[in-house]
């Protein structure tokens, strides 16, 4: 038997599997990469040597209003390390700067006070100006033009009114934007719901270039780049993290050039070749990305690439925060025929895209390839409403998968962290 640890919430569960059934364990080399210096020094070194940009302290000189875009509670960005260094560097160049930390919630729910403390620490939460973006608050939004896609670019006016706009973030594989980080701080991070919907239209989600690890020719990425330039995003600090959420690499500087350098580093470590199997087991890397079913679709897309057609995906995601969106949930609860739903999405104009349609569209693509057994803390009915099969343990899920396939020796490929790898066919 082989024992494999799988992240689940803030803990791990163990999977015991017969060696002869185990086709492969697909892991990113990120888990083995050991930087020569510590996390803080990595970020500081990146900021001391910005790519394609002046240092942040120099950019801050003479700037009155400075806005730092920060990721929200759904992203494991090590802000306790990054943010103090950014604040220090800004004040080094301009001690009197009026600084606002703008939380990039995209279309997610509001980040709570407790989540802010967990993210930044009490000192920053108690002493810095923090504003949480609301994509539906028209009073705080401003129109900046028309995206290449034809959608309207509308962003938070605090960012638009800033004399200097900068961002922190992290780079990981992204299932339709290619990679996270960089330009995503603006779109979807601080954009209006209308703008996000246009960018995430069915045509773009269906585009074969809108996939993990692809930037060139990716229409979603193109929109995001245009938006970030229009918003004057001048500087970023982005990191790459390992399974323990520790910084192993950092870049700083120009939004495009620094991000590209970070993506290049990540790609070398986390590309893995698909090993087809009857059953593929994946996770969302544990907390914070496995808090709801909505986010768990990301980890499923890694399994999608390597599971055989009509096979079974076992997805582990604690989902202690529920399904992640009423519209997303209702889409699957209210229609038994997912092909009808997909046809409806594809018939919609990009400017008529509805909330969470993109996630539903990708999820339908997964469901069309394989049955999904969902291991979570969610109630069984909710899981079944999503056209999935509920299970409370990986052992129970594996047994159900064998029953579905009618094969107690069905082959298995395991992806311990489905959001940290780029599985390539």
- CATH homologous superfamily annotation of the largest domain: LarA, N-terminal domain
Number of extended strands: 20
Q: Would you state the CATH class of the largest domain?
A: Alpha Beta
Portion of residues within helices: 25-40%
**Total of helices:** 16
The assigned CATH architecture of the largest domain is 3-Layer(aba) Sandwich
**Share in β-strands:** 25-35%
Helix and strand content put the structural class at alpha/beta
Low-confidence stretches: none
Shape: globular
**Alpha-carbon Rg, integer:** 21 Å
Q: Main sheet: which strands, in order across? A: 3-19-15-16-17-18
- Round the mean pLDDT to the nearest integer and report it: 96
Using the coordinates shown, work out and report the CATH topology of the largest domain. Answer: Rossmann fold
Biggest pleated sheet: 6 strands, parallel
Distance between the termini: 28 Å
Number of domains: 2
Describe the model:
This is Nickel-dependent lactate racemase. One of its GO terms (molecular function) is lactate racemase activity. Helix content is about 35%, strand content about 25%. The chain has helices at about 40-50, 55-60, 80-95, 115-120, 120-125, 155-160, 195-200, 200-205, 220-230, 255-270, 295-305, 325-335, 340-345, 355-370, 380-385, 395-405; strands at about 1-10, 10-15, 20-25, 65-70, 100-105, 130, 140-145, 150-155, 165-170, 175, 180, 235-240, 245-255, 270-275, 275-285, 305-315, 370-375, 390, 410-415, 420-425. The strands form 6 sheets. The protein has a 6-stranded parallel beta sheet, with helices on both faces. The longest helix is centred in the middle third of the chain and has 16 residues, at about 255-270.
């Amino acid at each position: 038997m082989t024992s494999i640890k799988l992240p689940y919430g803030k803990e791990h569960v163990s999977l015991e599997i017969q060696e002869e059934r185990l086709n492969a364990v697909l892991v990113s080399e990120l888990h083995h990469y050991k930087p020569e210096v510590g996390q803080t020094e990595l970020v500081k070194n990146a900021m001391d040597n910005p790519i394609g940009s002046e240092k942040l302290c120099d950019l801050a000189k003479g700037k009155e209003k400075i806005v730092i875009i920060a990721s929200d509670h759904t992203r494991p960005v090590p802000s306790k390390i990054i943010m103090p260094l950014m604040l220090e560097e800004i004040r080094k160049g301009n001690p009197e700067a009026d600084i606002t930390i703008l939380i990039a919630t995209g279309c997610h729910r509001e980040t709570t006070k407790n989540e802010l403390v967990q993210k930044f620490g009490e000192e920053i939460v108690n002493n810095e100006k923090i504003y949480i973006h609301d994509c539906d608050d028209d009073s705080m939004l401003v129109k900046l033009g028309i995206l290449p896609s034809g959608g309207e670019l509308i962003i938070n006016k605090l960012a638009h009114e800033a004399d200097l706009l900068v961002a922190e973030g992290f780079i990981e594989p992204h299932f339709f934007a290619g990679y996270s980080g960089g330009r995503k701080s603006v779109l979807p991070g601080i954009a209006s719901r209308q703008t996000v919907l246009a960018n995430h239209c069915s045509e773009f989600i269906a585009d074969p270039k809108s996939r993990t690890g692809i930037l060139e020719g990716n229409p979603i990425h193109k929109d995001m780049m245009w938006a970030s330039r229009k918003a004057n995003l001048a500087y970023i600090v982005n990191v790459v993290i390992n399974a323990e959420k520790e910084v192993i690499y950092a870049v700083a500087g120009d939004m495009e050039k620094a991000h590209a350098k970070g993506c290049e580093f990540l790609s070398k470590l986390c590309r893995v070749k698909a090993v087809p199997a009857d059953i593929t087991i994946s996770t969302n890397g544990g907390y914070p990305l496995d808090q709801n079913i909505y986010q768990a679709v990301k980890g499923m897309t890694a399994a999608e690439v390597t599971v055989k057609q009509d096979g079974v995906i076992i997805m582990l995601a604690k989902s202690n925060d529920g399904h992640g969106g009423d519209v997303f949930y209702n889409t699957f609860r209210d229609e038994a025929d997912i092909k009808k739903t997909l046809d409806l999405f594809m018939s919609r104009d990009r400017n008529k895209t509805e909330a969470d349609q993109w996630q539903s569209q990708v999820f339908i693509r997964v469901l069309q390839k394989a049955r999904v057994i969902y291991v979570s803390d969610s109630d069984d009915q909710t899981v079944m409403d999503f056209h999935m099969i509920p299970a409370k343990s990986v052992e129970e899920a594996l047994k159900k998968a064998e029953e579905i396939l009618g094969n107690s020796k069905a082959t298995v490929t395991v992806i311990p962290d489905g959001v940290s790898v780029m599985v390539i066919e």
